[in-house]
């Protein structure tokens, strides 16, 4: 399904997640977030720093990945 949500990335906290979601939104890419127990800075069973997973529509995943790579360059 092209519109099912898929994981884009896991970031260390909600502030970083909101920055990325703002970047995605400015490019017309829909996203959502949820707390995560995996990813950078996360120990098994714990969510230190408020780790947050960001999801995008499957149909927008490649564009979202390219946008994040360009932003990190």
Descriptive notes:
The chain has 73 residues and is of the alpha+beta class. The chain has a single domain, classed as 2-Layer Sandwich (Alpha-Beta Plaits). Helices cover 34% and strands 25% of the residues. The protein is built from two helices and three strands, in the order βαββα. It has helices spanning 14-26, 61-72; strands spanning 5-11, 31-35, 52-57. It has a three-stranded antiparallel β-sheet with strand order 1-3-2, with helices on one face. The longest helix is centred in the N-terminal third of the chain and has 13 residues, at 14-26. It is globular. The relative contact order is 0.30. The model has no long low-confidence stretch (mean pLDDT 86).
CATH class assignment: Alpha Beta
SSE order: EHEEH
Radius of gyration: 12 Å
Q: What's the number of extended β-strand segments?
A: 3
Superfamily (CATH H level) name = Hypothetical protein rpa1041
CATH architecture: 2-Layer Sandwich
- Discrete helix count: 2
Oligomer state of the chains in this structure? single chain
The unreliable regions are none
Gross morphology is: globular
> Which whole number gives the mean pLDDT?
86
The separation of the N and C termini measures: 31 Å
* Class from helix and strand fractions: alpha+beta
Strand content is: 15-25%
Main β-sheet, in a few words?
3 strands, antiparallel
Q: Which range best describes the helical content: under 10%, 10-25%, 25-40%, 40-55%, 55-70% or over 70%? A: 25-40%
Task: Tell me the count of domains.
Answer: 1
Fold-level CATH name: Alpha-Beta Plaits
Which strand order do you get reading across the main beta sheet?
A: 1-3-2
């Amino acid at each position: 399904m092209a519109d099912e949500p898929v994981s884009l990335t896991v970031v260390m906290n909600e502030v970083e997640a909101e920055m990325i979601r703002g970047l995605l939104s400015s490019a017309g890419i829909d996203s959502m977030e949820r707390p995560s127990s995996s990813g950078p800075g996360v120990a098994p069973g714990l969510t230190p720093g408020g780790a947050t997973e960001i999801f995008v529509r499957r149909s927008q995943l490649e564009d979202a990945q390219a946008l994040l790579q360009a932003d990190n360059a």
